[in-house]
Specification:
- The complex is a heterotrimer.
- Chain A contains 19 helices and 34 strands.
- Chain A is α+β, with helices and mostly antiparallel strands.
- Among the domains of chain A are: 171 residues, Aldehyde Oxidoreductase, domain 3, CATH 3.90.1170; 198 residues, Aldehyde oxidase/xanthine dehydrogenase, molybdopterin binding domain (Aldehyde Oxidoreductase, domain 4, 2-Layer Sandwich), CATH 3.30.365; 133 residues, Aldehyde oxidase/xanthine dehydrogenase, molybdopterin binding domain (Aldehyde Oxidoreductase, domain 4).
- The longest helix of chain A has 28 residues.
- Chain A is globular, with a radius of gyration of 27 Å.
- The N terminus of chain A is likely disordered.
- Chain B is α+β, with helices and mostly antiparallel strands.
- Chain B has a domain of 122 residues: CO dehydrogenase flavoprotein, C-terminal domain (Enolase-like, domain 1, 2-Layer Sandwich), CATH 3.30.390.
- Helix content of chain B is 39%, strand content 22%.
- Chain B has twelve helices and 13 strands.
- In chain B, α3 crosses α4, α4 packs antiparallel against α7 and α9 runs antiparallel to α11.
- Chain B is globular.
- Chain C has two domains: 72 residues, Roll (Ubiquitin-like (UB roll)), CATH 3.10.20; 75 residues, [2Fe-2S]-binding domain (DNA polymerase, domain 1), CATH 1.10.150.120.
- A five-stranded mixed β-sheet of chain C has the order 2-1-5-3-4, sandwiched between helices.
- In chain C, a hairpin with a 2-residue loop joins β3 and β4.
- The N and C termini of chain C lie far apart (48 Å).
- The mean pLDDT of chain C is 96.
- Chains in contact: A-B, A-C, B-C.
Chain lengths: 788, 295, 162
């Protein structure tokens, strides 16, 4: 069986696009036409003529012992081809991104509500659903371990993973922890140096990535005993690395091709249906498609860690920070996922883009029987930013200073040191970003003479005709790292091929980069054009035939895989010029490629690429490694841990119906330094999208979990912003090059998600005078809470 | 599961008599969610889309007879004059796409306390009737007798909703709904209010704050009394803060909400009081203007 | 059961349709029109929006049996007969309104319907009309730009042809 029979496969073939735009331009997306025509094949669109549908039985309990599983009745359902439990797994039963602590199917116990226990493959999704209901599972239901207090007292409440089950260094119910001390730390002596001290307890709810394309894919068994998987993911190679041992196959027999990805935002960093579809395909010998329904999607992927944070800041009377003391507790849920990295980010970035002479920090991630949490846009930094930016506003109020001025008194600049001891060795225009955000013109006041309810809090719900509406303005700034940190070498690979097709030089770019919507494919083509002086660029489907591109996360893909494309294209360019030198004996030292020709700056065109290449192709692959980092010291948190930093500042303007507690964000301004905007249109799109997810966290988005059970696994009750909730988002871009990065670029995607949430909460505080120490801010908080 | 496609109303009644557990579907905006999420597996689905009379309405000048499947979008476009409260409520239902399919019949059939039509129907007065029919005949169920429990109505197993009879508005009507986002949201709580100057009454309807949609009877009685005693219907004079405040408190007291993922009971009570005060103020201001311009 | 209807002007039929199936499932899995997307299957996201007898609806909430003998037009039907992009489709590409693109098919149909009714909608009208179409990538700003661009082109085109 081959991919040939898969329907709707247009993006599983090369996509070619001609354009004059290199880097700095904004050419149209190469996949744009397919997407607007409905011809772009997303993972859920995969189709094979004799395919089966897979589905999973999931636990209704957050913590239980499985006494027995009886699949006999399910197997009798006509149209059912397989019912599998962990006993049917041929290889290793565990997987995980950093710690292999998660069973592919539950073994003797379940640790969270929604954990997969058994799989069914059938001829129709409804047949599969009917069969799942006939699987009989006997549970001994246990009291779930869900609060911080319970997690930290395993003697009384028990272990999420028994000590003998640990797959790593983890202990107790603490999955990972990181301490940090800089300067003198925070002692009584240090506290005495501060004229004012403000403290606060802050809480962040569990946010969901809520990408629109559900987890899905098609596994096709191959004649060589291997398997081909068409899937939506963020990192093909790390999926394969986790899948192969479970499937008991060598990695080369587990071949992944990226199908269309309907958004990701971190939620596809972990395995979801990949192993399950492959197990069913292996077992039945037939292609198996799995598509999660929206409720299953909420159970089937990790979420943003909810956080409880205590912050204490001391400052002098004139507003200079003296110390910061902080404890961040992140609930990682049942399995580790990306928890260690989330803790690392929270600990190392948890003080914000400020120079603070004395710092103490303790960040931990818990194991609990709550849903697993892992990667989501800006992880670790998002939670902390709500804490430290709330503190900055509190401190400004205490000192009677303007909140922006107070921040500017303490913002870091190039040459300053992070609390980790890492020097900021590229531009850090934090104070300038704030200044620009503040100087942008404010939106006009509410026009009470010509009210349109659609512009008011509540909109068409018709709750106010102007009554109770108070406007507020708030500011914030945030910091995020780019790329994987703490000693991890998250290199990217790119293959670039230059040849003559149809009488024109054409560059093909082949990487395993997951295009999840961010526009990496557009940028790759731009880089190839800039480096090779061609117009025609072909994007090869992303798959595991080429080396790893690392993950589409951590704002890293343009930096890392873009950098790899640049290296490979430069190598192709050098090879082509060398070919010309050998053939024509050029001695020029000023040769480059432009307009389809080999060109000397002084002598002009030397030869066309078509003539020079002839029938030959130049096909080279290069890896791009960023500069090395080191792990943070476990106790002091010191170390050159991050590759690059990125900053964004926001101003939020809100109208609050203070009687009903309803909020309308009127405008959300963003100012961000991007180093170099390779594609300005895409950069602005990333920033606006990032701001909107931050808006969601500020005022509506939360997975509500009670006693370990998810209460709102649907788009009816997990609300994300609509177009009527989302305001105009003016964006100002700075381009201060980072000398360490390709083209001087700085990762873009996450910084606005880190920084925008606190600005909105600050604006609501400004309108209401309330303390608002928890996000998302809900209407009942605004009608019952006490003034801050 | 069977899929029944009657072409006429009589065929539909016959089908429902033969399959009393058949689930009627019209716009599908509730039914299909339950199908897609495996909440419900009825013995049969009874499609009402082919029965065009269900998508028609008529107005005899005093009463609008609204076909069960007239989509919300058309209620907004065509009936904002005679049924202003219901039209405002219709505008808060789901999304434009949902409003193109869903209708009041489905809201009544599902009888969810969160259905957006209910507060407007209750507020429209006690002479609102659900026209229910079966092979046994047709009956008009007063709206106050229609809602009997959480997602339960007073239809018999063999009955279908054919239409709703709603008096043409004789005074201003309003509808407000709380949601935690600014569009496409299920009501945290909702309130419908109508002035009925002809018979000197007022109508209220509370949504999502009790096991069933309900009216705030004491609030209605209080306001009816005040308006009559003080001759306000005739004068159109200001109600005064005290009256508005008291009305809000009585609406609040009429609710018996719960805490759930959409909101807390305390917030629901609070918001109902605010919405009651505001909708009363808006409608009374409109009414006063009418009185004064007539004078 | 068998269901026959018109999709993008062509007669189609699907056999062995389960009675509980949605129009969306039939389009995507049975008649080769996977352009309409399955993001929530509860009418909350608008990604599956299609025209049913000329009216935009969520195809996930239409039972397959309900479309018997009716006309459906999907995102695939917004392209002209030569495969050239329709006006709204082109505007979405040009304005950068497409990122992951999963919400795009539904937005295109809904925008097409909006501009059909009102070629020059105000920003508030656009927001109201698109309030049932969730997008998670763009923050909607480029979508607003795309609708404004489509509106301007439509009006310019009309002006030229009149």
């Amino acid at each position: 069986m081959s991919a040939r029979t898969i329907q709707g496969q247009k993006n599983l073939q090369n996509i070619n696009q001609a354009s004059k735009d290199g880097i700095g331009g904004s050419p149209l997306r190469p996949d744009g036409n397919l997407k607007v025509k409905g011809e772009f094949a997303y993972s859920s669109d995969m189709w094979h003529e004799d395919m089966l549908w897979g589905t999973a039985l999931r636990s209704p309990h957050p913590r239980a012992t499985i006494l027995s599983v009886d699949i006999s009745e399910a197997l009798k359902v006509p149209g059912v081809y397989a019912v599998l439990t962990h006993q049917d797994i041929p290889g290793s039963k565990y997987y995980g991104l950093e710690i292999q602590d998660q069973p592919a199917l539950a073994i003797d116990k379940v640790r969270y509500h929604g954990e997969a226990i058994a799989l069914v493959a059938a001829d129709h999704p409804e047949t599969a659903r009917r069969a799942v209901k006939k699987i009989k599972v006997e549970y001994e239901v246990l009291t779930p371990i869900v609060t911080e207090e319970q997690c930290l007292d395993p003697g009384t409440y028990g272990y999420v993973h028994e000590p003998h089950e640990y797959k790593s260094h983890a202990y107790g119910n603490i999955c990972h922890e990181q301490r940090l001390v800089s300067g003198l730390g925070v002692t009584d002596e240090v506290r005495a140096l501060a004229d004012v001290i403000v403290s606060g307890d802050y809480e962040v709810g569990m946010q969901d990535q809520a990408f629109l394309g559900p987890e899905s894919g098609l596994a096709v068994p191959a004649e060589d005993g291997g398997i081909d998987l068409y899937v939506a993911t963020q990192w093909l190679h790390v999926d394969r690395e986790q899948m192969a041992p479970v499937l008991d196959l060598p990695e080369e027999k587990v071949r992944l091709t990226l199908a269309g990805v309907g958004g990701a935002f971190g939620g596809r960093e972990d395995i979801s249906m990949q192993i399950h579809a492959c197990l069913l395909a292996q077992h039945t010998g037939k292609p198996v498609k799995i598509v999660y329904a929206r409720d299953e999607s909420f159970y089937g992927h990790v979420h943003r860690h909810p956080a409880r944070m205590h912050y204490e800041h001391g400052a002098t009377r004139d507003g200079k920070l003296v110390f910061a003391d902080c404890r961040i507790v992140l609930d990682g849920g049942a399995y580790a996922s990306a928890s260690p990295a989330v803790v690392g980010n929270a600990a190392s970035l948890g003080h914000g883009p400020y120079v603070i002479p004395n710092v103490k920090m303790h960040a931990i991630a818990l194991y609990s029987n709550n849903p697993s949490c892992g990667a989501m846009r800006g992880f670790g930094a998002v939670q902390a930013a709500f804490g430290y930016e709330s503190q900055m506003d509190k401190l400004a109020a205490e000192l009677g200073l303007d909140p922006v001025e107070l921040r500017q008194l303490n913002t870091m600049s190039e040459g300053d040191y992070m609390p980790t001891g890492q020097q900021i060795d590229s531009p850090a225009p934090v104070a300038d970003l704030l200044r620009r955000a503040k100087e942008m013109p404010l939106p006009p006041p509410l026009d009470t003479a010509h009210l349109d309810v659609r512009q008011l809090p509540g909109a068409l719900s018709n709750t106010s005709h102007g009554e109770g509406i108070v406007r507020g303005v708030g500011y914030s700034v945030g910091i995020k790292n780019v790329g994987f940190s703490e000693g991890f070498d998250d290199y990217s690979t790119a293959r670039v091929r230059l040849e003559v097709i149809g009488g024109e030089p054409v560059a093909m770019v082949h990487t395993a980069m997951a295009e999840v919507g961010q526009g990496g494919v557009t940028v790759h083509a731009q880089i190839a054009r800039t480096e090779l002086g061609v117009e025609q660029v072909t994007i090869h489907p992303a798959n595991t035939e080429v080396g790893s591109a690392g993950s589409t996360s951590a704002s890293r893909q343009t930096y890392m895989t873009g950098g790899a494309v640049k290296l490979a294209a430069e190598a192709v360019k050098r090879a082509l010029i060398e070919k010309g030198r050998r053939r024509y004996g050029w001695t020029h030292d000023d040769i480059t490629l432009a307009g389809g020709k080999v060109v000397s700056a002084r002598s002009g065109a030397l030869v066309s690429m078509v003539d020079l290449l002839g029938d030959e192709a130049i096909d080279l692959t290069r890896e791009h490694h960023h500069r090395p980092t080191v792990p943070f010291d476990k106790e002091t948190g010191q170390g050159f841990g991050h590759v690059q930093y990125t900053f964004c500042a926001n101003r939020a303007v809100v109208d609050v119906d203070v009687e009903l507690g309803l909020v309308k964000v009127v405008e959300l301004t963003a100012v961000q330094d991007v180093g170099k905007a390779l594609n300005p249109l895409s950069v602005v799109g990333q920033i606006q999208g990032g701001c909107t997810q931050a808006l969601g966290l500020a005022v509506m988005e939360e997975i509500i979990v009670r006693d370990g059970k998810v209460r709102n696994a649907s788009f009816t009750d997990y609300l994300i912003p609509t177009i009527l909730d989302t305001p105009p988002i003016p964006v100002e871009i700075l381009e201060l090059p980072d000398p360490h990065a390709p083209y001087g670029l700085r990762g873009v995607g996450e910084a606005p998600t880190v920084s925008a949430t606190p600005s909105i909460v600050a604006a609501i505080r400004n309108a209401t005078g309330l303390a608002l120490n928890r996000i998302p801010v809900r209407p009942e908080h605004l009608t019952t809470e006490l003034p801050g | 599961m069977e899929f029944l496609r009657p072409a006429t109303w009589d065929e539909a009644l016959a089908a429902k008599a033969e399959y009393p557990t058949a689930l009627p579907i019209a716009g599908g905006t509730d039914v299909m969610v339950e199908m897609n999420f495996d909440v419900h597996r009825p013995s049969a689905i009874l499609d009402l889309n082919r029965i065009t009379e269900l998508t028609q309405w008529s107005n005899d000048g005093g009463v609008v007879r609204l076909g069960a499947s007239v989509p919300y979008a058309r209620i907004i476009d065509e009936l904002s004059g005679p049924l202003p409260g219901l039209a405002l409520a219709a505008h808060t239902v789901g999304s434009p796409q949902i409003r193109n399919r869903g209708g009041v019949g489905g809201n009544l059939g599902a009888a969810s306390p969160a259905g957006d039509s209910h507060p407007a129907l209750l507020a429209a007065g006690r002479d609102v009737f659900v026209e229910a029919a079966s092979v046994r005949g047709t009956r008009l169920i007063p709206i106050d007798d229609f809602y009997v429990g959480v997602k339960r109505n007073s239809l018999a197993a063999d009955e279908l909703i054919r239409a709703v009879h709603i008096p043409v508005a004789d005074g201003p009507q309003q509808f407000s709904k709380i949601g935690t986002r600014n569009a496409m949201v299920i009501a945290v709580c909702a309130f419908g209010f109508a002035l009925h100057p002809k018979d000197g009454t007022v109508g209220t309807g509370i949504g999502s704050a009790a096991p069933t949609p309900r009216r705030a009877v004491e609030a209605e009685e209080y306001l009816r009394g005040v308006l009559a005693e003080r001759g306000l219907w005739e004068s159109g004079d200001l109600l005064g803060t005290e009256v508005i405040q008291r009305f809000g408190e009585l609406v609040k007291a009429a609710a018996s909400p719960i805490d759930d993922v959409r909101g807390t009971a305390d917030y629901r009570r609070h918001a109902l009081a605010v919405m009651a005060r505001r909708t009363l103020t808006w409608t009374w201001n409109d009414y006063s203007k009418q009185i004064r311009s007539a004078a | 059961m068998r269901v026959t209807f018109t999709a993008n002007g062509k007669p189609v039929e699907a056999d062995d349709v389960w009675e509980g199936e949605s129009l969306l499932y039939v389009l995507r899995e049975r008649v080769g029109l996977p352009g309409s997307k399955n993001a929530c299957e509860q009418g909350e996201c608008g990604s599956c929006t299609v025209y049913l007898d000329g009216v935009p609806v969520c195809s996930c909430l239409v039972a397959a049996g309900q479309v018997q003998d009716r006309e459906v037009r999907t995102v695939e039907g917004l392209t002209d007969e030569n495969g050239e992009l329709g006006l709204v489709q082109q505007a979405f590409v040009d304005a950068g309104a497409v990122q992951c693109g999963f919400c795009t098919p539904g937005l295109l149909v809904q925008t097409d319907a909006l501009l059909d009714q009102d070629a020059q909608p105000s920003d508030n009208d656009i927001r109201e009309a698109l309030s049932g179409n969730l997008c998670r990538c763009t923050g909607y700003e480029k979508i607003m730009d795309a609708v404004r661009l489509a509106s301007a082109r439509k009006c310019a085109g009309k002006g030229a042809s009149e």
